[in-house]
Amino acid sequence: MTGTLERIETPEILEAPERRIEGADKVSGHARYAADIGREGMLHAAILRSPFAHARIARIDVGAARTSPGVRAVITGADVRPARLGRRVQDWPVLAWERVRFVGDRVAAVAADTREQADEALARIAVEYEELPAVFDPDSALAPGAPLIHPDAAEERVLGGTRPAVPHPNAQGHAVHEHGDVAAGFASAARVFEHVFDVPRVFQAFLEPRAALVWLEGDVVRVVTTNKAPFALREQMAVTLGIPKEKIVLETYSIGGDFGGKGLSPDEHVLYFLARASGRPVRSVSRYADEMRATNTRHAARIRLRTGVDPDGRIVAHEAHVVFDGGAYAASKPSNVLLPGEALATLDGYRVPAARVEAVSVYTNTVPAGHMRSPGQPQNTFASESHMDLIARELGIDPLELRLRNAIRAGDMDVHGHEWHTSAIPEVLETLRREMRGLRAASGSGVAVGARPTGRGKAAVRLTVTPDAYVEIFTGVSDQGGGAHTMMQRVVAAELGIPPERVRLRRGPTDKTPYDPGVGGSRVTTVLGGAALAGARALRERLAELDPSGSALGRLDRAASQGVSVTGEQDIGSEGHSTYAYAVSVDVDRETGTTRVADAILVADIGTVINPVALHGQLVGAYVYGLGQALYEEMRLDEGVVTNPNLGDYKLPTIADLPPIRVILITADKGSGPFGAKSVGELSNPGIAPAIANAVHDAVGARIMSLPITAEKVLAGLAQAPLKVP
């Protein structure tokens, strides 16, 4: 271990396995989701989508739809113009006017007494299109003379800043980082290696499709949503609809999975216009096929890496060029640079004295891309950890040893030009080396290492002592399955020294609860948990003032009639890191090209554990997530059409596909979360794909440069690979 570690005692309460605060409701069927919420007189929405990737809307005739049985409202782009939606740049029309930009773009919407009547009315809408030239990949979109996908970009609003400069009108976002003398570094290098990797689109595959309900109460817009960040959605809707945010109230219930996909909410805006037109509440529930072909997927990417090393394999210079396929709209990206998160994170976790990294996201006439668990990192990590393995094998250095030689240590600078004050990566790799002695033997093995920045942001929660002497946490954040509510309960209980059962949690709408940025960005435990801890400390001080000599529970009893309430706040702006390393063994069938993972080890540096059961679930779940991207998952597109928009053709790993995994935790290096916790939700899914690719190469000599690692690719690689001698 390097660096100075702060000694933080872990409360005894946190050592016991947790009981999920919402677990009984979920397993008994009592949990309520957005699709379960109704209102008297509620209508049902259906949305007409474009069959063309790029076309001008010449005419829309909704006359027959308006007179269809049960129909109460029909709207088109003319009824919503100029309303566009988006998390940062609002470039996605609520309903298309003038042109559509991808197959699945929203063109018209109907509200009817039943969903069946709404669907029937859609079939009566007549739309005439004039097809326009389309581009389906970034190279075509950036080529000279390419058709412009957003010729009206100057009309698109940007929330909280200005639109970044881009090198081409079809670029969404662009960023360059450079530090050190890159040219001199390459000039001094003993060897220079260059490789190109491709990663396809994949789908979040959350269990619960999006659902929403919107109604008007006087001049107040009320929204039930599956969005995981209701305060952020409130601000976006306020700009899109031209309504003060105080007049928009959002409420979430249970969220049935997210994995990054539910930060975007296209349908709530449509429902507002339908509710306004009909005077009735309107609900929508997405079909799964629509989720797969018309909402935000992970970005496909092409990644070119060039790295110079000294005679011992130590990195002296690095260049990278990362091109993301952003699809038809950038609306789902929340960052100012309009790139997926960690877009510049090539060679993450290594000492890089000189680097130039450039990333660009590109408009294409395809389904919009957005956020998915560690948004840009699986693409970059597959490339960089495959790249490092190729360098090691070419130099004749053990792949794990090469990583140890280059592992970032305290005082070193990473690929972003940031200095690390502590680093657990050397310990993680040494631990992996020891644990690999027990790795199940197979035809080949591979390793990968990586790091994930700690989540940042602001949050607040309110703590109140109730009349029956419980502590109530009041928050606007929903638990999308990660255990956020249980985490807050345990943090508050640990700080106050009371049983977790004496801490309740109540969720409320945005007009009642303190501000919270929402779930995502690896920030729930650090930011929301930090706010809960701050509130618990403030409450403990108040209780001590009321009863200086009493026990923890006795103080609660004394305060029960006092109406004691405090607010806890947290604001984290600096970055720390969680780190990990994988080792896997694989069996590869030379006759069929089939790859089977025989065994896996994950070493994870996670600081203090708050929820032991959920922690294991997050790490193993992320492993499964990465396994799917490594071996099975790919959204296939044919001229903009998603050709496998169902879970029969889009292959997810099932329990039968899952190999064993052993998880080893490193807890000494404390993080910025409560009691020294770090972020883990997005930590371990980026590294499993390159570890498997490296193991396949070790097994049979076939180097797979794109995901997923299919039997066909392995067979093609075998045809070019030298025969491996046992």
Protein described:
The structure is a single chain. This protein has 726 residues and is of the alpha+beta class. It has 3 domains: 38-133 and 204-294, Alpha-Beta Complex (Aldehyde Oxidoreductase, domain 3); 302-420 and 578-720, 2-Layer Sandwich (Aldehyde Oxidoreductase, domain 4); 456-572, 2-Layer Sandwich (Aldehyde Oxidoreductase, domain 4), CATH 3.30.365.10. It has a 7-stranded mixed sheet with strand order 3-8-1-16-13-14-15, sandwiched between helices. The chain has a 5-stranded mixed sheet with strand order 11-19-18-17-12, with helices on both faces. It is globular and about 75 Å long. The two termini are 37 Å apart. Residues 1-7 have low confidence and may be disordered.
Shape: globular
Any idea how many domains?
A: 3
Protein structure class = alpha+beta
CATH class of the largest domain, named: Alpha Beta
Helical segment count: 18
- Fourth-tier CATH superfamily name of the largest domain: Aldehyde oxidase/xanthine dehydrogenase, molybdopterin binding domain
Q: Return the average pLDDT rounded to an integer.
A: 94
The fold-level CATH name of the largest domain is Aldehyde Oxidoreductase, domain 4
For the CA atoms, what is the radius of gyration?
26 Å
Percent helix among the residues? 25-40%
- The CATH architecture of the largest domain comes to 2-Layer Sandwich
Report the β-strand fraction as a percent range. Answer: 25-35%
Give the strand order, joined by hyphens, for the main sheet.
Answer: 3-8-1-16-13-14-15
Low-confidence stretches: 1-7
